[in-house]
Amino acid sequence: MNFLEERIVKDGVVKEGNILKVDSFLNHQMDINLFDQMGEEFKRRFADKPINKIVTIEASGIGIACIVARHFGVPVVFAKKTQSVNIDGEVYVAEVESFTHKCKNQVIVSKKFLGPDDHVLVIDDFLANGCALQGLISIVAQAGGTVEGIGIAVEKGFQQGGRIIRNLGYQLESLAIVEGMDAETGEVHFREQ
Ligand code: G4P
Ligand code: NA
Ligand code: NA
To answer: What pTM value is reported for the model?
Structure first.
């Protein structure tokens, strides 16, 4: 097991409905030393890529992205979620459906902060169905930029997102891939990587 898998075993909590709570270290209270290790690992895995920007989505991607960005020495842009429909042409827009929360959001990024010269590393905390990621990929494409890679903390390997994104040809690196979990025993099973 790697450092993140070990931390999930130690402090993650398995809930009914295949939900993994990691709010004591990842997406509510945040362990910055852990994020720093994640940044070091992503830097190693994407060492050959000319990354000049990190793109993430609010809310819980932001903290991780900021610490990861220190390892690349690049700025972070986060996509904002909005329900408003009157978009003014100054922003890139993508529709993102959340299966967990059963709602649709538009996510937007200002055209000022993303363009054809950008070589982007996309960062997020969770990958489940991949809707959020596909929205971010669409926004980078609208900008004429390049997605150089995608770094995820926890991928739910039994949902479809990872397969879809890898089939599109992206280098997707997930630090922990959960293949299954048991709310009765609290056990979490990881994919061998
Ligand atoms: P998708 O983006 O991969 O399609 O994910 P999905 O719609 O299934 O998930 C919706 C939200 O729930 C996402 O956060 C995602 O990170 C989160 N999520 C999915 N599965 C789990 C889980 O097992 N545990 C935890 N803790 N979160 C999970 P969000 O609402 O879009 O963003 P945020 O505001 O929380 O960052
Ligand atoms: Na997220
Ligand atoms: Na989340």
So the answer is: 0.96
